[in-house]
Amino acid sequence: MKRLEGKVAWVTGAASGIGLASAERFAAEGAVVIGSDIAESDGWKPVEATAPGSSFHFADVRDADAQEELVGQIIREHGRLDILVTAAGVAGGGQVHTLDIEEWDRVQDINLKGTMLSCRAALKPMVQARSGSIVTIASVEGLEGCEGGSTYNASKGGVVLLTKNIANDYGPANIRANAICPGFIDTPMFQSVISHLGPIADSIRNQHKLKRWGRPSEIAGAAFFLASDDSSFVTGTALAVDGGYTAGHSHGLTAI
Known about the structure:
Elements: E1 8-12, H1 17-28, E2 32-37, H2 45-50, E3 55-58, H3 64-78, E4 83-86, H4 101-129, E5 132-137, H5 150-170, E6 175-182, H6 188-194, H7 200-206, H8 216-227, E7 238-241
Parallel strand pairs: 1-2, 1-4, 2-3, 4-5, 5-6, 6-7
Helix pairs in contact: 1-8, 3-4, 4-5
């Protein structure tokens, strides 16, 4: 038996990257997957083929009404919502004294407020069912600082603590909430950022102790674990899936 058979999962940011990889993994494990994004998805059709009943929807995570409407549609069509993965997000940064306020608001609205609105919509049917698993996608930059990170780091740090608060508030209803904190993962958003960094990119890659970028499928594997009954006693954690990025500093004192 597939380990998510009979489950219904909603994945935001599902058009590409970590969101699409999570949707593909969940579908392969038997879940009906509802994907949402503000972008079209060329890769979504295999999800629908793998998991009949799955569907893709246009929805902006900043739009509270759109989130509520989509969850209502999920409940009408499928009768339940078991899993939420909040993969919608954008990059952003800059030094605080030069940061444009509109840029700050854009990143916070999508990464932090958008995550909250998705959780808010999903929690309502989960509370009624007394069951559910929420997996938020934060970042290693939500666990520690990074040069020039400012607004992105602040938004992802907020996601980590929001997730812990949800775990506290809804644990008595058998609803689990966990954050994944990826390292630098080779996604379209990542490529749009790293392509401007030149030689600095090598330094960032080498901060990962495995000396490579992560793959979206590797984050999807962690999301599957946290969404499934394999993690039934795991809630309120911030799981770094980062190739050792946050393991500590390397200064070349040892060699293999």
